[in-house]
Each structure stands twice: as structure tokens, then as C-alpha cells.
């Protein structure tokens, strides 16, 4: 009986210790995790919000014009820390926290760094043919095969649609010619005013947004795109069109939209090169890394254009204790965002509308 009592007391003591540890861990909450993202690892103590903001400014080179602006941004920064905590709970298989966008309100972020103008593909778009899917590899990444240019940065211009379009044509041109050429987004920003006749106000409009299928149509009609070095990116849309047809480096043969079936998307990716896609970017402002697989994310409100470059069969999600297949997306916010400029999002459930707006382009070999 004494032996039973001893073990009972030992078990109760052990459970109490676990409970205390859990409570202590919960009391720390996510603050320390968020702080460690913007200060060296050895500074693992909890810091006050002002020190935290100072570290953020130093890491990302942030400056403000006056005290009023500084104080306003500090308030926005604190609000975004709270928002990142919410995102972490809704999207536990990814890591959310402080990013270079942490001093922007959600509306500022949407206006400056998104720019997908339409919420659906045009009704008259050509449909990609159905491809065989029986022999798809478990993992594939066009970065490993030389078809993807380095990460670019659209700056505070809503030209994501142009970067998505250009990335797809760069990849297709590589498949056609064997040469990876960086093409001009600025040509699209300055010169592309193509409209979808089926919907009012759906014209490509530089930093004010556009649509990748519109941009493919413009490129087809114009004859092609220049190299980036010949028509460099400025991140402004007030400039006049400077397109020089004699400097075309890549041309469009045709383009089409891809079925929402994920095996068809993967098959088109392998056959045709990187694909232009639209996505709901609500979780991307606070994204740092991992496989994003939020519990709740609209599949219809697509507001950002990115480039699908590959997929993986197993991205470990420690919170949910299982492996998750994922898509690999090339973004246009510089290499100091996300996973060196890339975003991973889970496959299989059209999360954030990732399967809803997919298009592919075929290039023609040009003489230049």
C-alpha cells in the first residue's frame, strides 16, 4: 500500500510539473518567437516593444520623415505583431512574424504590393489540353533545371501581374531555346493596356494592377518582350512606352488556362515550364517560412500574381504531426521576404485559391 502511495505521489508530482511547464510556456506566448526573428539569437530575453521596433528598423533599413510618422508606424507595427500571432494560430504549419512589411497597414500592403486586377479568368480563354498524369514525379523544381531567373523585386508598385507573366515566358523561352534570359517587366508596365472585353475595367494598368492572360495577349500582339537589361525596371508607371521591336528577345506562340485539377496543373508545369497563377495573399504579409496551409482562406478573392515553379511531396508540419505536399511559388518582393523570396503553400485543397487561376504560355524561338 505504501508502495502504491509512493508511485501515486510521484505520478501526481510529475503531472504537476508538466502542467506548470505548460502554463509557463503559454504565458510566454509568441512574443519571444517574434522578437527572435529580428534580433540576434543570443538576445533571447523578452524585449519591450520600442526595442523590438528599433531592431526591425535596423534590420530592414526603415526611416521615417518625422516623429509623427515614426509614432504612427510604431502603432501599425504593434498591430501587425498581434495580426502575426493570429495568422500563426490559423496557419500553424508555417512561420509568421515580423517581415519587411510589418509597418504597413493591410490596405497599404494591398495597394502597394499586390495588384491582380481580376478575380476570375476570362471566359473566352483557351483551355489547355488534358495531359497524361500517370507518371508524374513525386517532387519537381524548375530551379534545379535552369528555367527560373533570380528573385526580382517589384517595389511599391502593384505590378505583380507583370512579374508573373514575365516569369512564365522566361521559363518557356528557356525550354524553347536552352537560354535563360531575364525579360522586361517594365515593358508591360509602360506599354500593356490590354483589356478583357468580357468585363468592364479589366485593363492592365501598370502599378494599378493587371492580369496575366491580358499580358500574354499584349505580348502576342506586340511581337514579344525585350530583355530586362534593354528595358530595365523602374517601378513607376508614369513613363511613356519605349518598346523597341528590334530588341525583342522572346515571343509568345500561344497561351491557355489550365484546369483546376492539381494533377493537370503539375503535368502542365512539367511540360510547359513555370506557370502564372493568382492567389489570395492575405497570409503573405506576415509569412516567414514553412508550408502555409491556413485553416481559413478565401478561394475567390485572388489579389496577387506569382509564379509556380515546382512542388514537393512532403513539407513537414510539426504542429499537425504529418507531412504535407506543397507548391513552390516564386514571388516578386525581393529575396529578403519569405524563404529567400519563395512561398510554399500546401497542395490538395485549393488553399487560398492557388488552383483557381493558372495559365501557361508557349514561346517561339526568336533570332535574337
From TrEMBL:
Which InterPro entries does the record associate with it?
A: Papain-like_cys_pep_sf, Pept_asp_AS, Pept_cys_AS, Pept_his_AS, Peptidase_C1A, Peptidase_C1A_C, Peptidase_C1A_papain-like, Prot_inhib_I29
Tell me the keywords, alphabetical order.
Answer: Disulfide bond, Glycoprotein, Hydrolase, Protease, Signal, Thiol protease, Zymogen
Ranges of residues in domain Peptidase C1A papain C-terminal:
136-362
State the superkingdom: Eukaryota
The family database entries (Pfam families) matched by this protein are listed as:
Inhibitor_I29 (PF08246), Peptidase_C1 (PF00112)
What Gene Ontology biological process does one annotation of this record name?
A: proteolysis
Where in the sequence is the signal peptide annotated? 1-25
Where does the record place the Cathepsin propeptide inhibitor domain? 53-109
Q: Does the keyword Ribosomal protein apply?
A: no
Keyword field contains Disulfide bond:
yes
One GO term in the molecular function aspect is:
cysteine-type peptidase activity
Listed GO CC annotations: lytic vacuole
Q: Which family does it belong to?
A: Belongs to the peptidase C1 family.
Q: What is this protein called?
A: Cysteine proteinase
Species of provenance: Quillaja saponaria
Origin organism lineage: Eukaryota, Viridiplantae, Streptophyta, Embryophyta, Tracheophyta
